[in-house]
Amino acid sequence: MTYTKTYEPCSYEEAIVASDADTWQQAIIFEMDSIKKCHMGVGRITTRKEAATLKMGFRYKYVVDSEKPKYKAWLVAKG
After folding, report:
1. Which residues fall within 8 angstroms of residue 23, CB to CB, at 6 or more apart?
2. How many CA atoms does the CB half-sphere of 39 hold within 13 Å?
3. How far apart are CA 11 and CA 56, in angstroms?
4. Is pLDDT at 12 greater than 60 in this prediction?
5. How far apart are CA 10 and CA 13, in angstroms?
6. Residue 6, strand partner residues
7. pLDDT digits (tens, 9 = 90+) for 50-74
8. Could you give the dihedral angle defined by the CA atoms of residues 59, 65, 68 and 72, in that order, rounded to the nearest 10 degrees?
9. Are 77 and 27 in contact (CB under 8 A)?
10. Contacts of 77 by beta carbon, 8 Å cutoff, 6+ apart
């Protein structure tokens, strides 16, 4: 089993123009579906509250019994 160091995108913009953009897109959709399933969606913001700034994180996750890495995307609230 050999692993090669591959480039991990730092932002959504980099992920969608990468050579493996379709796989990153699937990881993003999986993460967004997980958020919706847990009812952690976006609500209305009143005048007394501010919206949090969000950022997508991207990482390869290597599985022991697999030759291919698993693509992982997650949403992070900045601030």
Report:
1. 71
2. 0
3. 6
4. yes
5. 8
6. none
7. 767 888 899 888 878 877 888 999 8
8. -20
9. no
10. 52, 53, 54
